[in-house]
């Protein structure tokens, strides 16, 4: 198909130059992201709200009303671990050697469906992030930047290491799991504010692929060159959208995990939680983070990309961002309204895939009603 993509920077124009005259191409996923923060535009069209509520009148996101007559069934849940003994077994499984050997996870060629291939858009909705309830001796050691921090945040980064500290180094982490084929793999994920204080948002292919949910699923927030300063959190439930569950429709490549408490404390109590936002305007300043583990990266550090997102004109309803992150960054967060001085923002998409003819462009799904329903389902799921 002959298309033209008008982008807002020379970097993006160069990255997407091959998009015209391309039809069917393979995709390579990205399972680890690191985003840098900048003075960003405020979250548009959606003010802060309490988790589980939404501003203005209308039906809650967990309801089928407002999703359109053609809406499919709601999010799909899968039991990852049913008992404390299972969770202990998963924790023992993930030795440092297995984590370091886990391969960056890749996505398959996107599958376009008829009838439900476009996210439905409803009322803008958002909820603010939350800081961690830190113990007296916080276990996480990070490099911090004081008064000169804003000068170090790059507004148009295509893949820099994040060194400015803040909430993002605690809430973003690596995801590890075992696939149905028996291999160990890695993605990225984000702790978000939620009613149960136990939700990790990631990509759909990071919880289920090839018709099967992954096993031995854990989240390691603040992963730092093999160290796990905030612990290893075992998933009790995995969730994804109905569209990804049924046919792996790339437009709905969104997943979530509900993790069990660790030593009597919830994930958000320990790591904090980023805000989330749905049904927001497209083509806005965006910061993406993750832990890319495929060359030239090695999964040891948090990387970020930043710039104005743009619409995919090739195949999907996704948005794109100039970004060099590689496999392992999949599931890493895209933030709107990201504040570099605090490391907090509103999660508004996740790293999903790359076209193989545009290796410097990351794609992420639009967070519409379906993604919002997934989040609502996750935050109301019992963590045990």
TrEMBL record:
It comes from the Bacteria. It comes from Nonomuraea roseoviolacea subsp. carminata. Residues 55-65 have a biased composition (Gly residues). Keywords: Signal. Residues 66-75 have a biased composition (Low complexity). InterPro entries: Glutamyl_endopeptidase, Peptidase_S1_PA, Peptidase_S1_PA_chymotrypsin. Residues 48-83, 105-130 are annotated as: Disordered. Residues 1-44 form the signal peptide. This is V8-like Glu-specific endopeptidase.
């Amino acid at each position: 198909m002959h298309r033209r993509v008008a982008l807002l920077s020379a970097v993006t124009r160069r990255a997407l130059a091959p998009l015209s005259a391309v039809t069917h191409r393979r995709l390579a996923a990205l399972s680890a992201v690191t985003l840098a923060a900048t003075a960003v535009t405020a979250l548009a069209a959606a003010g802060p709200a309490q988790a589980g509520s939404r501003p203005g009148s209308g039906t809650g996101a967990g309801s089928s009303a407002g999703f359109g007559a053609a809406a499919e069934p709601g999010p799909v849940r899968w039991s990852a671990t049913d008992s404390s003994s299972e969770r202990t077994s998963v924790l023992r499984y993930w030795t440092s050697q297995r984590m370091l050997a886990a391969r960056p996870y890749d996505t398959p060629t996107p599958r376009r469906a008829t009838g439900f291939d476009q996210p439905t858009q409803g009322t803008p909705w958002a909820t603010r992030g939350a800081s961690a309830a830190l113990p007296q001796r916080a276990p996480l050691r990070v490099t911090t930047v004081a008064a000169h921090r804003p000068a170090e945040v790059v507004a148009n980064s295509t893949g820099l290491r994040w060194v400015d500290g803040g909430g993002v180094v605690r809430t973003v982490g690596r995801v590890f799991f075992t696939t149905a084929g028996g291999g160990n793999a890695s993605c990225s994920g984000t702790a978000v504010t939620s009613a149960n204080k136990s939700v990790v948002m990631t990509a759909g292919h990071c919880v289920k692929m090839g018709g099967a949910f992954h096993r031995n699923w854990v989240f390691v927030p603040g992963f730092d060159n093999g160290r796990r300063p905030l612990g290893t959190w075992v998933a009790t439930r995995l969730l994804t959208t109905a569209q990804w569950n049924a046919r792996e429709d790339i437009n709905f490549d969104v997943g979530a995990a509900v993790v069990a408490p660790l030593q009597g404390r919830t994930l958000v109590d320990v790591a904090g939680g980023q805000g989330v936002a749905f049904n927001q305007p497209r083509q806005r300043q965006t910061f993406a983070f993750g832990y890319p583990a495929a060359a030239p990266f090695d999964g040891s550090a948090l990387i970020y990309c930043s710039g104005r997102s743009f619409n995919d004109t090739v195949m999907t309803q996704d948005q794109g961002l100039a970004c060099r992150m590689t496999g392992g960054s999949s599931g890493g967060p895209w933030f709107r309204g990201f504040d570099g001085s605090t490391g907090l923002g509103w999660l508004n998409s996740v790293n999903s895939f790359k076209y193989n003819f545009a290796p410097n462009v990351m794609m992420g799904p639009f967070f519409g009603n379906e993604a919002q329903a997934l989040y609502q389902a996750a935050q109301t799921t019992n963590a045990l």
